[in-house]
């Protein structure tokens, strides 16, 4: 494993310490590690794997893109920036936010789109693994939004696209058990 990847993993773990997934229990870093693993399974390079590890750091901590650039280089910073939602989107309802993400992804680089597919796949897997806190309607809305985002990313990685489609099928089946 490269120094870039191990440094990014350590930095992400520190940035996300004390953060949990929606269930309030699972450590947030598990999501970041799964996204990086999916990107590695897609045979992406160390720049993309490091960027996957850092993909939520700017949104979820006090770290800025300039610090990412200083620590990990301009290419990683460019990818992380491409994966970071505009802060103005934060208060929007999920369907509007997902529509804006999809528009953004349609113009994004292949590296950004590849990591975004892995991110959405991990989110759907967590919806299945960690259903606490989700209603059937919220889950269905999330799945629809994730599909819209990934549809804008298609062509970046056939492997990740199939993996995402499988996660959608599993999530659709699982949400039937969720409370209304």
Automatic annotation (TrEMBL):
SUPFAM superfamilies (UniProt xref): HD-domain/PDEase-like
Which InterPro entries does the record cross-reference, listed alphabetically? HD/PDEase_dom (IPR003607), MESH1 (IPR052194)
Asked if the record carries the keyword Zinc, the reply is no
GO molecular function, a single term: guanosine-3',5'-bis(diphosphate) 3'-diphosphatase activity
**Keywords assigned:** Hydrolase
Q: Where is the HD/PDEase domain?
A: 24-133
- What protein name is recorded for this chain? Metal dependent phosphohydrolase
What is the scientific name of the source organism? Citreimonas salinaria
């Amino acid at each position: 494993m490269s120094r870039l990847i191990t440094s990014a993993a350590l930095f992400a773990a520190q940035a996300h310490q004390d953060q949990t997934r929606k269930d309030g229990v699972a450590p947030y870093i598990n999501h970041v590690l799964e996204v990086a693993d999916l990107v590695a399974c897609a045979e992406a390079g160390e720049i993309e794997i490091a960027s996957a590890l850092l993909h939520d750091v700017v949104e979820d901590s006090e770290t800025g893109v300039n610090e990412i650039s200083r620590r990990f280089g301009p290419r990683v910073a460019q990818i992380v920036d491409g994966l970071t939602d505009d802060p103005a989107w934060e208060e929007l309802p999920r369907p509007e936010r997902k529509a804006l993400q999809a528009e953004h992804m349609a113009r994004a680089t292949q590296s950004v789109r590849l990591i975004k597919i892995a991110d959405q796949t991990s989110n759907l897997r967590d919806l299945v693994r960690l259903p606490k806190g989700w209603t059937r309607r919220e889950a269905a809305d999330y799945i629809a939004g994730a599909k819209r985002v990934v549809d804008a990313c298609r062509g970046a990685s056939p492997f990740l696209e199939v993996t995402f489609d499988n996660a959608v099928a599993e999530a659709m089946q699982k949400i039937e058990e969720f409370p209304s």
